Amino acid sequence: MNISRCEQRVLHALAQGGQINHIRDTKGAIVAVDCMTRDGFRLVDGTIELFKRLKRRRLIASRGGAPYRITRLGLEAVRAQLDNR
Question: What is the C-alpha to C-alpha distance for residues 76 and 79, in angstroms, rounded to an integer?
Answer without folding.
Answer: 8
